[in-house]
């Protein structure tokens, strides 16, 4: 039986009806068509599904949708302001922080949280905080450079 779910996504209120076992990731992608958030492993191992809940990052594949009642979610689609990219998006472009791009939405959501939560003090700290976001192309040094630029 479906359950009601009220949540705000990228500033827009939604009144949904969801399966109790649906993850936030599946609800975002399948019910709200917000496919910028990626499904890599679906098991909390890769970080491709990273979004912000009330400003804090989470793996949306490990989060049940019904637990999001009353929460504010931000996805990669909610970072830019119209045509104006978020500074972290600009920095990823400038520093080549991606190759195939599959992990990029999750990387960027974690990168924004990394600075906001105060974990961008050193390269070591950044790498530690970002360690849950896997990039199979190995763009790590460029991702760190992008974060350091936005932080400064
Ligand atoms: Fe959620 Fe990999 S899809 S961590």
TrEMBL record:
<feature type="domain" description="2Fe-2S ferredoxin-type">
    <location>
        <begin position="3"/>
        <end position="79"/>
    </location>
</feature>
<keyword id="KW-0408">Iron</keyword>
<keyword id="KW-0560">Oxidoreductase</keyword>
<keyword id="KW-0479">Metal-binding</keyword>
<protein>
    <submittedName>
        <fullName>Xanthine dehydrogenase YagT iron-sulfur-binding subunit</fullName>
    </submittedName>
</protein>
